[in-house]
Task: inverse folding
């Protein structure tokens, strides 16, 4: 009588060769979605290029017009000056907000509440009409004392002053929260460890806190710079000749509204592209040592990985003798 033999299903054949390549999963839905998006984008691009209502010859004519170039220069100056002053005031406000002095903390909180809670356009119009409230600006002794120095409000607050003050004060409120968030992102025990090593407050801030805080501060600051470039177009409401107002002056005379709007849109796109490129490199500099995401292996990397798998799967004819343990 033969004994029934059971086959062990978990038995591994030693002569079996593991697979040398990993077959990636297929996602047909992704390819279909990408195809639909490409078709829609191509159709939109074709309609824009072939539509005669855009008047591309007029766009080419006014792209480097002297008035457009002057407006572009005004926009860039407003962006640079207002953003620089906004960052400086924002740092001071962030320090006051984090201060243990309740008066400074409360006043800075009220400042942030007001300038973040009202629209930028309303603030610009308010500063433009400040002379209706205060016809004269003066430095005098408090509570009705004699005037030390003063001048007419309209002579002090010209169009440039109104634009810079409005953009700066609004931007400083947002930069204060960005700086405060970056400083709070650094763990407190690192500051305590630096003090325990004998570092003073300035050296601790410069060598320990600031490099880590900049990783959090730089990305939103770059976004604020790009936003400032676009928000500066609001100064056209107070008749300051920026890029938008210069285009408005031109198409109010020749009635070529769409081509002039296309011209300023192209210049805004060029400026934001340059700023985005600079922002990406600055973020890469301050983000060294931090892995921001996983990268797919390239073709050479795949080839080297597959060759390594094949070498591991092949039997070794000359095995290395085991090392003798030291007794």
Result:
């Amino acid at each position: 009588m033969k004994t029934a033999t059971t086959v062990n299903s978990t038995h591994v054949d030693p002569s079996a060769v593991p697979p040398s390549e990993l077959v990636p999963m297929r996602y047909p839905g992704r390819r279909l979605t990408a195809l639909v998006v490409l078709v829609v984008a191509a159709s939109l691009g074709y309609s824009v290029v072939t539509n005669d209502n855009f008047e591309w010859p007029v766009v080419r004519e006014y792209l480097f017009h002297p008035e457009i170039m002057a407006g572009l220069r005004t926009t860039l100056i407003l962006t640079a000056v207002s953003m620089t002053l906004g960052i400086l005031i924002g740092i001071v406000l962030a320090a006051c907000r984090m201060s243990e002095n309740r008066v400074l903390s409360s006043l800075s909180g009220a400042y942030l509440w007001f300038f973040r809670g009202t629209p930028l356009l309303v603030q610009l119009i308010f500063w433009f009409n400040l002379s209706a409230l205060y016809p004269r600006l003066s430095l005098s002794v408090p509570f009705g004392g004699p005037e030390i120095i003063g001048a007419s409000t309209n002579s002090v607050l010209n169009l440039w002053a109104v634009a810079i003050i409005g953009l700066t004060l609004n931007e400083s409120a947002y930069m204060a929260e960005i700086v405060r968030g970056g400083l709070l992102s650094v763990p407190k025990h690192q500051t305590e460890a630096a003090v325990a090593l004998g570092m003073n407050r300035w050296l601790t801030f410069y060598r320990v806190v600031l490099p880590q805080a900049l990783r959090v501060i730089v990305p939103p600051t770059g976004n604020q710079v790009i936003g400032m470039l676009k928000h500066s177009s609001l100064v056209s409401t107070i008749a300051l000749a920026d890029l938008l107002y210069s285009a408005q002056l031109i198409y109010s005379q020749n009635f070529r509204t769409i081509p002039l709007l296309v011209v300023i849109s192209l210049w805004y796109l060029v400026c934001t592209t340059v700023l985005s490129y600079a922002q990406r490199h600055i973020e890469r500099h301050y983000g060294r040592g931090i892995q921001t995401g996983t990268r797919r292996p390239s073709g050479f990397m795949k080839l080297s990985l597959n060759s390594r798998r094949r070498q591991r799967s092949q039997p070794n004819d000359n095995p290395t003798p085991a090392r003798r343990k030291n007794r």
User: Anything to note?
Assistant: Residues 1-6, 297-301 have pLDDT under 50 and may be disordered.
